[in-house]
Design goal:
Length: about 210
């Protein structure tokens, strides 16, 4: 049992593991580890070889089984973070739920509602406000709400920030991010460089 009793589960829903997801998962692992929570990456295909960086991430447990099998006897303790849920997550939900479940999918614009793959399993659902977040942001916000007991609408956010990708070009990220102490959107280490690199190939292909 982790120090604060909370487990954050990302159910990996893609057959492959994109570099974007890999950076997001590394960042979730590091932050969960630092805050005494547990991070479980579930439903990882046996054929998928995780990059070295993720294999060595402290605080990350990897499971080939899916959420339904792992927590078959604790379904009522699982909360799915779902952009389509009718109720927003509240600090009191930290007293009700022990396991917080997220879709391990890259965001898309417009959103394709792939979280529905988890919704149809029948878990209690909570929303993190009306704007789509990246998976690492969704986990970060959930930790702030249930561990630090900050109301979801009191967290400082920036929506759809512009990122300068070259001297003359910038790209708009179609997500909501938490604002860090430096006033910038919090993104996983290496993400800005990856975005710059990928923008040369066309960001549209990746979303
Ligand atoms: N467009 C995506 C979809 O198809 O559902 C959203 C995916 S989002 C990048 C990855 C995960 O973060 C979602 O499956 C959900 O668990 C969580 N998430 C992101 N934004 C959220 C929000 N506003 N409310 C609740 N959960 C959210």
């Amino acid at each position: 049992m982790p120090a604060n009793g909370k487990t954050f589960v990302v159910e990996h829903l893609d057959p492959e593991l994109e570099e974007w997801s890999s950076l997001e998962y590394s960042s979730i692992a590091a932050e969960c580890h630092d805050s005494g929570a547990r991070f479980l990456l579930s439903s990882v295909p046996t054929s998928l070889k995780l990059p070295e960086r993720l294999q060595q991430a402290q605080g990350l447990a990897v499971e080939t089984r899916g959420i339904e099998e792992i927590y078959a006897d604790q379904k009522d303790k699982v909360c799915l973070l779902d952009p389509a849920a009718s109720k927003d997550l509240s600090p009191d939900d930290g007293d009700t739920f022990d396991i917080f479940l997220f879709g391990g999918i890259l965001g898309d614009d417009p959103p394709r509602d792939r979280t529905s793959e988890l919704r149809k399993k029948g878990y209690h659902g909570r929303r993190l406000g009306p704007v789509q977040m990246t998976t690492d942001t969704a986990v970060r916000v959930t930790r702030m709400v249930v561990q630090d007991r900050v109301a979801v609408d009191k967290i400082p956010y920036v929506d759809h920030p512009e990122l300068k990708v070259s001297k003359n070009e910038s790209t708009e990220m179609p997500f909501r991010y938490v604002i860090g102490k430096d006033g910038q959107p919090i993104m996983p280490e290496g993400m800005v460089d990856l975005i710059k690199h990928d923008s040369e190939k066309g960001l549209g292909d990746l979303l």
